[in-house]
Write the structure tokens for this entry.
Amino acid sequence: MNSGVREVCKRCTVIGGSGFLGRHLVEKLLERGYIVSVFDILQGFELPGVTFHVGDLCDRQALLPALQGASVVFHCASPSPASDDRALFHRVNVEGTRTVLQACREAGVQRLVLTSSASVVFEGTDIKNASEDLPYARRPIDYYTETKIQQEKLVLEACDPGRGFLTVAIRPHGIFGPRDPQLVPILVDSARRGKMKFIIGFTLNMITLAYSPALLSWRAEGRVRPRELTPSCPRQAYHITNDEPVRFWEFLSRLLVGLGYEAPRYHLPYRLVYGLALLLWLLAVLLRPLLTFRPTFTPMRVALAGTHHYYSCARAKQELGYRPLVSLEEAITQTVRSYPHLRLGA
Ligand SMILES: NC(=O)C1=CN([C@@H]2O[C@H](COP(=O)(O)OP(=O)(O)OC[C@H]3O[C@@H](n4cnc5c(N)ncnc54)[C@H](O)[C@@H]3O)[C@@H](O)[C@H]2O)C=CC1
Ligand SMILES: CC(C)CCC[C@@H](C)[C@H]1CC[C@H]2C3=C(CC[C@]12C)[C@@]1(C)CCC(=O)C[C@@H]1CC3
């Protein structure tokens, strides 16, 4: 049987398939002839060939029907990092992931692909060309990251080739692209409120990013297969990035200028902004029972804006045959084009 025919028979489930990354993945899987089920707390769209199961992943009974017959499950669900809700992160990312694992085993699923995050090793200080050998952050930068670490550990520890259940975690970083609800919208909102005039820290800090549609074309090709999980390479996590480190402020400036806004140009000292962000965050936590406000400059965002954090995806290239399919240049062009409603004056 050729691989094209084999793929037509593939059934898979995308948990969190209504989200930004999940929906791109669903579209790529459909293109490749997969029969796709989506499990999510909401139905984000309608597409022929996709069956939606609406429910909370913490509910095993709700999850089980969505996993029946699936040979591979992609777990891309998480509360938004912006929610800053420790109890919610723990319930969904940790307890919910335990439930996902249990339900996968019960339903006879053979492979589980978790979307983890490269920030599981980030402590707010410089990371340069890091491989996956870097240990998990001892002091994670926020609650979101704390639970992403626990989630990744749970999934990788559950890998059991003897019982035919294989797990793998991919660690993208700074995902962007059409329909992204975070990076470009936050940037534009800040620019419209006059907050994107400043460069935090130094201008040379480099980052790696992951362009969503291209990232998922690769993933949807089904390269994360059992044969990659050999005894010499068990329980792996893989950085997945554009593989083109870029200066953080240059990247933001290119998006802003592409959408008609001015690039940031005034410098502010990193420590000052980080300290202020920490104060604001504390204030938001203390005042939460009385009023809700979400500062734009959170300690996490400031730390990401003012440090190097670029990751090597050599392991994914070597062991999984990963190749970024689109250059960063092209990814930025396609992203800018996809947001006509966010252009200056629109
Ligand atoms: N956006 C980024 O820059 C990065 C994201 N990631 C990870 O990638 C994954 C996908 O992220 P995005 O697509 O950006 O987020 P998103 O917020 O667009 O999508 C997450 C989806 O999960 C669903 N969901 C949340 N709680 C649920 C629950 N209890 N039960 C069922 N579904 C639930 C949401 O309804 C949403 O559709 C997440 O695991 C995130 O941690 C990792 C690195 C970077
Ligand atoms: C307000 C400005 C100082 C910064 C604006 C850009 C940021 C909104 C984004 C730049 C890097 C992004 C990023 C994430 C969210 C959006 C940014 C902070 C994540 C925290 C999303 C979830 C992850 O798992 C890690 C990401 C790292 C990079």
